[in-house]
TrEMBL record:
Residues 3-142 form the Isochorismatase-like domain. The keyword Magnesium does not apply. Belongs to the isochorismatase family. The keyword Hydrolase applies. This is Nicotinamidase-related amidase. It holds the Pfam family Isochorismatase.
Length: 180
């Protein structure tokens, strides 16, 4: 069975930038999973540091209202890896999931770490590159003209173990409702 992971779509991230396009693409994929009655699992990062926008007791840690009503399951995490010290593995096992689709924030941390760990745990993993986003920029990494999503997608693609697609390709490959 397939399952969609929607990682860290929380107020503290979404409100930090202009992510209208990314949210729209995530919603397209979510709706496709809903139509097919496949599980949609939201990961929610909670941080202990009060200055962090995802502090566990802040509104920043709440799921963003644009997508929160789509969550079948919400799993809290404390690290970029959605599997580390969470019950994600047991939830996926109980649903008999063997193929994970990754969307959400931040591309180069939580999405990438989760994709790699998912593969390491035996799942087929599809990373939907344009349905991820990040608050970081080329300036964050002092790498002029760095396209973070494209870079991460290329690295994962070159691994030859994680499938990397954009939303249109997802629609073509998986016979979805995305482009209708």
């Amino acid at each position: 069975m397939k399952a969609l992971l929607v990682i860290d779509v929380q107020n503290g991230i979404v409100n930090a930038g202009d992510f209208e396009e990314e949210i729209s693409l995530m919603e397209q994929v979510i709706k496709d999973f809903k139509i097919k009655e496949l599980p949609v699992i939201f990961m929610k990062h909670l941080d202990e540091a009060e200055e962090n926008p995802l502090h566990k007791d802040s509104e920043g840690s709440d799921l963003h209202p644009s997508l929160k009503d789509y969550a079948d399951i919400v799993i809290e995490k404390k690290t970029p890896n959605s599997f580390y010290e969470t019950d994600l593995q047991s939830q996926l096992d109980s649903l008999e999931v063997d193929h994970l689709f990754i969307t959400g924030f931040n591309t180069e941390f939580c999405c990438m770490f989760t994709a790699i760990t998912g593969f390491d745990r035996g799942y087929k993993v599809t990373f939907i590159e344009d349905a991820t986003g990040t608050v970081n920029t080329d300036e964050t990494y002092e790498m002029p003209e760095l396209d973070i999503r494209d870079f991460v997608g290329t690295v994962l693609h070159w691994s030859n173990v994680i499938e990397v697609v954009d939303v249109d390709e997802y629609g073509e490959y998986y016979d979805s409702e995305v482009n209708e």
